[in-house]
Amino acid sequence: RGAGPGKMAAGSAADAQARFGHSVKGLLTEKVTSCGTDVIALTKQVLKGSRSAELLGQAARNMVMQEDAILHSEDSLRKMAIITTHLQYQ
User: Fold this and answer.
1) DSSP code, position 90
2) Name one GO cellular component term (predicted).
3) Which DSSP string do the residues of 10-67 spell out, in sequence order?
4) How many angstroms separate the CA atoms of 53 and 47, rounded?
5) In angstroms, rounded to a whole number, what is the distance separating the alpha carbons of residues 3 and 25?
6) Does the predicted model carry a pTM greater than 0.85?
7) pLDDT per residue as tens, the chain (90 positions)
8) What is the distance between the alpha carbons of residues 26 and 32, in angstroms, rounded to a whole number?
9) CB-based contacts of 72: which residues, under 8 Å, 6+ apart?
């Protein structure tokens, strides 16, 4: 009978260890889930930034094209003004 309380103490220690292991697993699962969520958010942000950079580059190219068109129009207007002046002399 002297071995009975020792077995009981060992059994409760094993139960405590099992509960501790279960709570550690739970915390680890929460941390993994949290990290996964953070990685997904970071990935979305990087993709959004990449898309923003792409749109910015496209806008810059469009502005250059517009600038060329404006310069060409300005040149055409200057030539038309010269032609108009010549026609007025005639």
Assistant:
1) -
2) BORC complex
3) HHHHHHHHHHHHHHHHHHHHHHHHHHHHHHHHHHHHHHHHHHHHHHHHHHHHHHHHHH
4) 10
5) 33
6) no
7) 444 455 545 567 777 777 777 777 878 888 888 888 898 888 888 888 888 888 888 998 999 889 989 999 999 999 999 999 999 888
8) 10
9) none
